[in-house]
Amino acid sequence: MSTIPVIDIAPLVKGSPEQAHAIAMDLGRACREVGFFYITGHGVPKALMDAVFDSSAAFFTGPATIREAATFTGPGGNRGYIRLGGEALDPGKPADVKEAFNIGLELPPDDPELLASAPFRAANLWPDMPGFRDTMLDYFNRVWRLGRDLHCGFALDLGLEPDFFETKLDRPIATLRLLHYPPVTKPLSEGQLGAGVHTDYGNVTLLATDAVGGLMVRDRSGRWLDAPVVPGAFVCNIGDCLMRWSNDVYVSTPHKVVSPPGKDRYSVAFFLDPNPDAVVACLPTCITPDRPAKYSPITGAEFLRSRLEPTYSSKPT
Fold it and tell me: Where does the signal sequence lie (predicted)?
């Protein structure tokens, strides 16, 4: 594929078995050939998406004290505000020119894993902003369901039962990430970008963007493609964990963000990783005599920890 395909996924959930299978094949083709795809027909209301972007902009442009009260908890909890220059997605390059706010799976205060400080189980840090929590949790739950629907398509394409991934994503290490790329008003350091070249770590990412653009995707031939803004659509990509699960049948794709000069850029990413204790092992339908298992089994928490820690090493701002 030389372009990123646009797939209407409504028949995956609401169509006949034949229609669902056809959409699954389209998703599988995109995962094999480019690793990225847009989805329409997803059912997330536009009014809710607008409210999320409005709340995000209010958070990043509001009083600094609100952000400081929700400072990042570190990769072990992966929640809270990450300052400008606090992250380098390409660890070999200068810090990214962006700031972020991470929201994880909301758990009740008496949840046993939360009380035990289990890996990637932590309380969310909610800023003191009216309506912020309710808006974000509504959105989180809708895109979480949408991500599981996509996994039904992946399972069908990979020759599995459609609900194969459901029990592996029912208490996921999922992160809703609000992102702000401030205007670039002076030359950046050599190799510095809004978001450095990277692949995503988990199973699938569902990204909503504003109209500014700047996302670029590297195709299988090594060319960098602009990912144009498709109004109302999510741009999705598979991550390294699903690549590992599929024994490299699906391949994650490097991408980066080049922020256009003089403009604020906002995006909202939802990263769906498996449950912390889910065992990520090569799927039996992805192993053949010519393609033996390439990876040893690993838990979702172990895999994500191995990928997150280098990202937050100390970097110059």
Answer: none
SS3 85: coil
| Helix (H) / strand (E) containing 80 | strand 80-82
CA atoms of 82 and 9, how far apart (whole Å): 33
Enter the tokens of residue 36: 């990225």
Q: Residue 37: pLDDT above 90?
A: yes
Tens of pLDDT, residue by residue over 261-299, are: 889 999 999 999 999 999 999 999 999 999 999 999 999
Phi, psi at 254, each rounded to 5°:
-65, 145
Q: Residue 282: which residues within 8 A CB-CB, separation 6 or more?
A: 244, 245, 246, 247, 293, 294, 295
Element (DSSP H or E) covering residue 243: helix 240-245
pLDDT at 316 over 50: no
Phi, psi (degrees; rounded to nearest 5) at 206: -120, 110
Provide CB contacts within 8 A for 230, sequence distance 6+.
Answer: 6, 38, 40
Q: Does residue 236 contact residue 37 with C-beta atoms inside 8 Å? A: yes
Q: Is 2.60.40.10 the CATH classification of the domain at 6-312?
A: no
State if pTM tops 0.90.
yes
Torsional sign, CA 14, 20, 24, 26: negative
Task: List own/partner pairs for 290-298 with CB under 8 A and 24 or more apart.
Answer: 291/247, 291/248, 293/247, 294/247, 294/248, 295/244, 295/247, 298/244
